[in-house]
Each structure stands twice: as structure tokens, then as C-alpha cells.
Amino acid sequence: MQLRTRMPGVGTTIFTVMSQLATEHNAINLGQGFPDFDPNPLLVDEVTKAMQEGHNQYPPMPGIPLLRQGIQKKVKDLYGYDYDSDTEITVMAGASEALMMSILALVHPGDEVIVIEPFYDLYIPVIKLAGGTPVIVAMSAPDENHSTYRVDWQRIRDAITSKTRALILNFPHNPTGINLADSDLDALEEIITDTGIFVISDEVYEHVVFNGAQHQSLCRRELLAKHSVVISSFGKTYHITGWKIGYCCAPAAITAEIRKLHQFNVFTVVAPMQYALARFMSDPTHHLGLADFYQAKQDRLFNGLAQTKFKPVKSAGTFFLLADYSEVSDLPEADFAKWLTVEHGVGVIPVSAFYRDPDSPAANHSLVRFCFAKRETTLDAAIERLQTL
Ligand SMILES: Cc1ncc(COP(=O)(O)O)c(C=O)c1O
Predict the structure, then answer these.
(1) Which residues 6+ apart lie within 8 Å of 326 measured at CB?
(2) Measured in angstroms, how far is the CA atom of residue 389 from the centroid of ligand 1?
């Protein structure tokens, strides 16, 4: 019998390739987006305690009530929208599961889904798996007059047809580090009022927003909340990416569809971690302190890169920043990233990897992504190597 693939065109991702290359060449890995430091020991202690207390069997399918209530309170305190923790909040196996279940729940064969380029790699294969057609709308890339990427809402509006079912957003944005402003929510409200499409809002970096700015969650506006699935990740917030735990908030009718998929996908999410997180998140200083914690790391990397031939760009959110390498090399981004890893021992990710056609000129702007979720010693060692360029 011939084997048929459900995900044609999906191979090993550049993230895996670059990490393997970094390991082979003993490079400092500022490519893949995860911390090289430990989570708060209090959180780890809470997991041990939860296991010792006997929380080792299947928890309820949508997540334990205490954790869903904690999420409800946090979201209400920060963004003002009051989700019903029984019917509108679901604990998921990471933002990845939340994204996949949301796309499968909302998108049907023949539907179009708008995705903004550059984009996180999960969205497009899953839209296709659901039978949908991704419609890609490019951001404007940095140029002589603009140091950062920009979203043009008119382009998104122009891409909407009678077949459009949903728009996928990701702010703070990986890889560009840009955020939504209040005026962007105005533009989105107009689009939703006119078209009624759904929004899947990937907000995994919601607590990593710099310069005292506030995260513009879609659930700050009632109209947007009523049309959206808002997704977050405890992995990014509490330095526990390996625990694979996150959540999604959505109106009850959408949540009911998402839960049907979730119950046959994993049924529920690891019990002791849910108890630990419920207790840990009751102290908001843990998530409220994250922006300052990462601001110091961004400043350290930015100032270090500014002493090299790279031109770093300040990030408004996420734990990534972009840097222009045009004074170092005129290689395309993927080749440059490999060269930097092999020859200079610092692993980075080419921004072109977040484009539909990474080899095209439209995807190559001499930019690479650095991750600063690293110890100071790691950042300093990388900067030292880059100074020799
Ligand atoms: C934009 C974005 N969405 C989703 C995820 C996945 O999050 P999780 O590890 O919670 O599944 C990531 C992880 O890198 C991400 O950068």
C-alpha cells in the first residue's frame, strides 16, 4: 500500500537544522526561542507538592477549575474582559495545541484564511490540513525610512473575500518584534464589523512588551473578543517551554467546538503542572515582572551588537530582536546564518525562514533573528565572538 502524506511540503524546519548545526560546531545558540536558564524554583516545588498530594490522575478535560479561574482573573485584571471559566477557557498542551485545535475547529474545506507574512511555521500546514486555503498578506519590510516591519490593514481588508473564514494574528510578533497599538485594534474592529470573520490571536508573548507599553490583547475590545480565539503559553511566560502547557479563551460556541477536538487529541493536560501553575499564577508579580526581566536582556544584546558590524533593531515585544548584517556579508539570509554558525560559532535564525518562499528576493532583507532569552554569560560570550567579525 502506498503511503500518502497529510502534510505535503513539510520537512525538517530551519529551527531544527540550525540547532543541529549549532551543536555540531559548538556554537552559542541564539537561534531557537527558549530560555537557557531555569524557571522559578517555587514553581518547580509546586509541581513536586502537587505530585505528592496525589494529583497524578486524569484532570478534567478542559483543565482544572482552579487554573481556569486563575486565567479568567488574570485576563480580566489585565485586559478587562470577563471570560466564563467554565465555558470559555480551555487548558491546552501548549499554544501549539491551542492553535491547531482552533484552526481545525474554525476552518473547513473551501475556506480561506489570511496569514500575515512573515509568519510562525505552524499556521500554514494546519490550515491546509483543515482543507483551507492560506491567503498570505505581506508586512512591509524595513527600508531606509523605516527600521521595523509594519502591517498595512488595508492590504488585509483587500485580501478578504466571501470565502474568508478567519485571520491569524500574532502580536507581539515572532520574528519581527513588533506590537499592536490601540489604533490597530480600531482597524481590526472595522474589519470585523464589516466582514464578521473570526480571528485566531496567537498572543504567546503577551507579557513581554517593552518600554512601558501595554499589550493590546484582542480581548480588550468586546467586539473582537466575541469573534476571536485568544491563545497564550505558560511556556513563554514562566520559562517552562518544555512543559508544553498553554490555554485558549473563546466564546462558548467556539470553545465547544475546540473542546470536541481537544478531547480526542490529548483529552486533557498534565495534572501536576496544572495544580502548580494555578497556585503560582495567583501571584501576579511573576508575569508582571517579565517585561523588565527581558528588557535588561534585550538591552544587553542590543548594546553588544551595536559594538559590532551588525545593525540591531530594537524590539517592542517578544524575546527576539532582528539585526541587519549588510555590512558583514551579502549572502542570502539562510546562507549567512549557516556561515555565522559554522565560521563564527553563533547560531541565529534567518528571517527568510518565516516566508512562504525563503529563497526569493522578497524574503531576503539581510536580517537575522537573535533570541535573548539567555543567561547574561551566554549573551556576552556570543557578543565577544561577533566582535571579531
Ligand atoms: C508565535 C508562537 N506561537 C506559538 C508557539 C508555540 O508555543 P508552545 O510552546 O506553548 O506550544 C511559539 C513558540 O515558539 C511561538 O513563537
Answers:
(1) 311, 366
(2) 32
